[in-house]
UniProtKB/TrEMBL annotation:
Protein name, entry field: DNA mismatch repair protein MutL
The UniProt record lists the keyword Nucleotide-binding: no
Similarity comment text for this entry: Belongs to the DNA mismatch repair MutL/HexB family.
Full protein stretch here: 1 to 339 of 647
Residues annotated as domain DNA mismatch repair protein S5: 209-327
Biological source species: Salinibacter ruber (strain DSM 13855 / M31)
Transmembrane segments: none
Function: This protein is involved in the repair of mismatches in DNA. It is required for dam-dependent methyl-directed DNA mismatch repair. May act as a 'molecular matchmaker', a protein that promotes the formation of a stable complex between two or more DNA-binding proteins in an ATP-dependent manner without itself being part of a final effector complex.
Keywords per UniProt: Coiled coil, DNA damage, DNA repair
GO CC entries: mismatch repair complex
Annotated gene: mutL
Biological process according to GO: mismatch repair
Length: 339
């Protein structure tokens, strides 16, 4: 199988929609040690998803090589798979994205005098030259699925794609409060969040939540902090009044990685008992830490789903931790203590 075909097939798994592109690019920026990340979108990402960072950058050789399949600088051995720390680890994202879009990479390391520009369209490198750029990396992904009309037609409405993009940026911004994040769509600024000045994790995360979801929630955030022999949970849940009609503002992270897990979201909802009505979803941004050997993050290419070796133990731990946190501020006779 040619590399080009392999990349187009892999692209089907890695790149579902503009939000998947944003996620991969932002994760790369974080892996590169960026202290500031800018995300520029046009037409709900269908014509442009661009991520600009001030991270370590790449030299001229790596600027070309990073588009090759399995060109990762992050995974050295199979053993590493057991203890994945960096966000990217499969070395497929850039190759996959470049197979189905028009990509312009500009990058520069501190030690280089000039930056490098590489353009790849539909998997073919079409340009490489020196360029002027500040230290760091800019990756602009234009016209996603331009060469795969069936996939392009499969995109949902701009409103839906933008919602996915926003949630992706929100999630990564929540998990990295010490990185400044700016988001712009069609020239309109959505967020411009400073890096947390505070070294205190709770204060920094709280500030980030308020920056993302509005300062009017100031009095509606309840800190959660709990620990068992092998689990640690921290973060914030919304007071019962801070809920939504959709799951859009529920964020769960496992060892720093965003995951979607209906079962565990249910554990949080359960902790509210009757305080939040059926069909409503309380806000939460919860960070669960556990021994990485007890969680498999590699079950899904999008890396959003995970498998735990003790699913029901984690459910119980989450529910009682959130219940305890809520109980501290909202003592209510309606609090469901059963089941
Ligand atoms: P992975 O992140 O799994 O390693 P990617 O395809 O996302 O694979 O990226 C390939 C490689 O390109 C990375 O391992 C890294 O060395 C380099 N790279 C990608 N994006 C950046 C960036 N923003 N800054 C510096 N290096 C980058
Ligand atoms: Mg990556």
């Amino acid at each position: 199988m040619s590399d080009r075909l392999a990349n187009q097939i892999a692209a089907g798994e890695v790149v579902q929609r503009p939000a998947s592109v944003a996620k991969e690019l932002i994760e790369n920026a974080l892996d590169a040690g960026a202290s500031s990340i800018e995300v520029l979108l046009k037409d709900a990402g269908s014509t442009l998803v661009q991520v600009i960072d001030d991270g370590c950058g790449m030299g001229p050789g790596d600027a070309e090589r990073c588009f090759e399949r399995h060109a990762t600088s992050k995974l050295r051995s199979v053993d590493d798979l057991e203890r994945i720390r960096t966000l990217g680890f499969r070395g497929e994202a850039l190759a996959s994205i470049a197979a189905v879009a028009q990509v312009t990479l500009k990058t520069k390391r501190v030690e280089d005098d000039a930056g490098t520009l590489v353009r790849v369209e539909g998997g073919e490198q079409v340009e490489k030259r020196p360029c002027a750029i500040p230290n760091g990396t800019s990756v602009a992904v234009r016209n996603l699925f331009f060469n795969v009309p069936a996939r392009r037609n499969f995109l949902k409405t701009p409103a839906t794609e933008l919602k996915h993009l926003t949630q992706t940026v929100q999630s990564l911004a929540l998990a990295n409060p010490d990185t400044a994040v700016r988001l712009e769509h069609d020239g309109h600024e959505h967020y411009d969040l400073p890096a947390a000045p505070d070294s205190d994790w709770h204060a920094a995360t709280r500030a980030r939540i308020l920056g993302l979801f509005g300062g009017d929630h100031e009095d509606e955030l309840v800190a959660v902090e709990d620990e068992s022999s092998d689990l640690r949970l921290r973060g914030f849940v919304g007071a019962p009044s801070f809920h939504r009609k959709t799951r859009g503002e529920q964020f769960l992270f496992v060892n720093g990685r965003a995951v979607t897990d209906r079962y565990l979201s249910h554990a949080v909802k359960k902790a509210y008992g009757e305080l939040v009505p059926d069909g409503a979803f309380p806000f939460f941004a919860l960070f669960l830490a556990m021994n990485p050997e007890r969680v498999d993050v590699n079950v899904h290419p999008q890396k959003e789903e995970v498998k735990f070796d003790d699913q029901s133990g984690i459910y119980g731990f989450l529910r009682s931790a959130v219940r305890r946190a809520l109980g501290r501020v909202h003592v209510s006779p309606q609090m469901d203590d059963g089941d």
